[in-house]
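Components:
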Amino acid sequence: MKGVIKRELDAELVDITHTLPRQDIRSAAFWLREILPWFPPATHLVVIDPGVGTDRAGLVIVAGDHALVGPDNGVLAPVTDRLSETTAPVIYRIDETAFSDRSQTFHGRDVFAPVAAAVARRGQNAIDTIDYLTPMTSWTHLTFPEPSIDEDTAVGSVLAIDDFGNVITNIPGSFLANRVGDHISVNGDSVPAAMTYAAQSPGTPLVTIGSHGNVELAVNQGRGDVQFDLTLDDVVRLADLDTSHQS
Amino acid sequence: MKGVIKRELDAELVDITHTLPRQDIRSAAFWLREILPWFPPATHLVVIDPGVGTDRAGLVIVAGDHALVGPDNGVLAPVTDRLSETTAPVIYRIDETAFSDRSQTFHGRDVFAPVAAAVARRGQNAIDTIDYLTPMTSWTHLTFPEPSIDEDTAVGSVLAIDDFGNVITNIPGSFLANRVGDHISVNGDSVPAAMTYAAQSPGTPLVTIGSHGNVELAVNQGRGDVQFDLTLDDVVRLADLDTSHQS
Amino acid sequence: MKGVIKRELDAELVDITHTLPRQDIRSAAFWLREILPWFPPATHLVVIDPGVGTDRAGLVIVAGDHALVGPDNGVLAPVTDRLSETTAPVIYRIDETAFSDRSQTFHGRDVFAPVAAAVARRGQNAIDTIDYLTPMTSWTHLTFPEPSIDEDTAVGSVLAIDDFGNVITNIPGSFLANRVGDHISVNGDSVPAAMTYAAQSPGTPLVTIGSHGNVELAVNQGRGDVQFDLTLDDVVRLADLDTSHQS
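Structure:
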């Protein structure tokens, strides 16, 4: 993919990550939403593409100051929502037949890379001049599950697990903010709520607010996913300790 | 290595991969052959070098529009062949004694990186002016095993396994092309031949044509190497089902 | 982090490594000391930061021609020593409160990345003009344990283990230099001392001088850490064979 882009355009390439869980559209969608908005205007190429070669579309999305190129499987949807808070995105479908020599198993190289190079070369304001792109209105949305929260309980689920094993939930950090320093119930176990990993001694589990603003289950210098025995989509129930004893 | 190059030359560095199987010359040779020709003219630095510090030579190869720098252990041979279809390559031996402070265990840093910087700085047409390079004619070839193919059977072997666990054989995709949609025998098991991974339901094994043009054994959203219990060099026998029943 | 830097500054980003052992300050300190001095003058951003969010300081260090940005936990100390052999380093403390929107769990993104961008943009000679930096004199030192060496015995420990499984000790290569070609005792086992990995047949253990100048325990095309059953900080005792029999 890098070679194909470099043949078309002397763009600077910045690797964002090569270590997302393979084929996992939802985890990738989460990380893209968290990472891409930090960049200055750029063309972002995303290939999490288990449906490569099927009739799933390929997309170019102009959202805010960014252009996104990748498959229409939902992986681009949450970051598009995040980047489009003030202006509606414009979505284009890639006519893959314009890439007549494409393989059926690696559109990252054969379709998305040359498209990303073309988009970067023309600029986001001239995307309409690319003849194999057609505006489309119906595309694949992907939204993350919403937690249910009341005064003393939050029931959510695991959105992602980072490389350190920190378990990222969909529960907003605001639920934790006034409980820092106390213990709360995490799926029935009493766990300290802390502002930092290192507020607990090494090896100790804790619940904190991650850099994404959501509640995160962690172990100082250890792995939260192992400690809490949680994987993607598992339910996470936070409660004040009194409440949890009654439930 | 990046520091050494940057000290010599303000070149842009593009990481191709750091995840090749360690010390595995043949897998690396396969991937270099598949990847490097997609790049525009460049200097490529390759360090798969289990013989570092022995009397194995270091090479600079000019092949097509590209320059290759690395050890003379065969890792550069298949990509050199691929890049030299119209013009013969020119091979130079590096006089390692020109790098008097070199370690015996990391020539990537101490020899190949400064050589690559010098080659990139001088340009491929001025390589003859680098005094520690001497044209040579005898170097280490590496060729991949050839499959044997007749009308209804192909017997080949495993060339490489990619990061997804897809098993890449040396059998050309043309053997599969008119069998797509049927089942064929893969080492005795009946397996669907499909154009795409997603043509089968998740977890289902399949045989397809990879982005390199060769037959690939895969599992949609799973690992082909585990499913088919295959590793490098193992025999892969594809046959029409009738034929396989007779064999 | 890359996005934050790119928003501030059109600097070229060079990835040095993303595969250091997580949270392991001492291994990171070793590799930084070995790697960074090979670079031309640059701003280096280091985030091995288990104490993120606590009152550990953040630092900018000007050492030799380089600027280092990262946490005050010792990870920057050995490379600072190495870069400061002719000129004393200048150490600045980052006033983190200047970054009012910072998270408590990811100062790499929220503090160190914007600081590194500011340092790179102003240049190392204008660091005094950055108002959230204050010179400091007391910071966290980290030194590696010293081996004890006499004429026929060296007792040291494991400093680091590289990606190949090579076991890097704190014993200087000079101890081995006149023993190459002989066998020596490594923790009681007789092991050949060799100049290169490939001097032994594949799978054979050996003791050699690594590219860092220290004694290294390795297996040709295998893993020294497994063969010698060693991990970080373990004792390594090298001795002439006669001597070892008496010990």
